[in-house]
Amino acid sequence: MKRFYFVTLLPLFATFISCKQFLDIKPNGKTIPKTSDEFASLLHNRLNEIDYADNSEPLIGSIGSLTDIEYFSDNLDANLNIFPGGSNLPVYVGQKLNEQQTRYSTLYQRIRDCNIIIDNLKTEDNEESKNVLGTAYAMRGVAYFLLLREFCEPYQSDDQLGVPLVTRFDMEEKPLRSTYGQSIHQIEQDLNKSISYHVSDKLFRFTEDVSRAYLARLHFWTKNWDNAISQSITLISSYPMLDTTEYRAMIQSKNSQLGNTLLRSYIFNDQNGDITYSNESQAIQFRPASKDFFDLFTEKEEDVRFNIIFGKKRINKKNFFAGVRTDEMVLILAEAYAHKGNEDKALEYLNLIRSKRIPKYVAYTAANLPAISTTGLIKVDADGKPLTPLIQAILNERRKELYGEGDRFWELKRNGSPSFWVASNGRRYTTYPYMYTFPIPRTDMQIINGLIQNPGYFN
Amino acid sequence: MKHRLILAAIALGVLTFAACKKENEVPPKQDGYILNYAIPAPTFLTDDERDILDAKRDEWDNL
Known about the structure:
heterodimer, A: mainly alpha, Serine Threonine Protein Phosphatase 5, Tetratricopeptide repeat, two-stranded antiparallel sheet, 5% strand, B: mainly alpha, 52% helix, rod-shaped
């Protein structure tokens, strides 16, 4: 009998003391790809989401994410919603703030995929490996840039809070937020590393020029005017501004990457993408453009953008577009030079963009710049200083040029994060300054001790 | 019988202490399972604000 108990207990004993890490779910190398082909297929899954404008694609965006950002800004006027269709449109950013927690996780999922590739693809002896690594570094840099822009406050100094940085694949890592300076350094390092691989194969989408454009965006966002200028000049020398006819074809193209567009989503269409595109394009018809935006087009039909953007009663006609084109670099140059105090150069680039959009334009000089608007939302520039006529003219030109491309909301954030309200159903909904910076997900706050939340999100 | 009890107690002890390496590795229990942040409630429009809205709507209606 004693032997029976002994024999029964021994396996039980062995069972429970042998599993010290029964909850360890690390793949321990078993599921990591090995060849450059396998890594490329991991990457192409993600790139396909961009090509088909999958709604959950976080890096470049789709018409769904783009329209939301436009609805949050002052380009369209929620007070003029046309019912009943307009009742389904977001009234203001507050309505969608909690959804941004998912976006945070999705961006980190892309970073995880890139980390797997960067950590494990050791060979760089063939063209495909170089393309895969270059693309992975670019995508990681872009993901961190978007996290910085959306989940951190507008840049004032390197010491303010940045994003948690994860640069190797470790499912159990729980990093705290870095400083803004450390985040900038990481993004710069990733994009420069990507540039060093000279990716030119369009199949990989994040080519050398795309990385350069994101570097320009990063330097512009963080007020590193000199570097923003040098990257932008390199790009516009390779991709100059287009004349009216080519511009119109590029902007109104539904699925083609034309002209000086470096990267855009939705270059392939499938049934899902087309249905989403059609639904979103119809939904925009229920919210007219704001009068304030419409009035910026003082040259009316003389400005080629006017007829592209506005239909009857200020209803949108432009094909909303998610991507990067080098016309933005001209605007970056104008503003960067203005902040550096080089008024002549700032006017040169401001007039360059006007000359390409308004055939019979009158060149701006220091003497004929429009007076400061008293009704515009933006009252201060990126440095917090009161607007000058020159900076205001540049911001207005940017608003006109990049309408429908998801830019204006971030411009509001960058230039003073102004508070404004809209009405719906007899109530007033206010976009408060803190709402321009999205909340760190609640689950992360609960799991990671010491993680600091952005202001405004406490309850 | 005595041996059986001793063996049962030992087995229970082994099960209790050997299986749990880190018994506190789950996050601390929260009061509630809340995933969202509270957003300020909208306020009712004042008469002045209604006037602003009416002016905007009139301007647009007359386009």
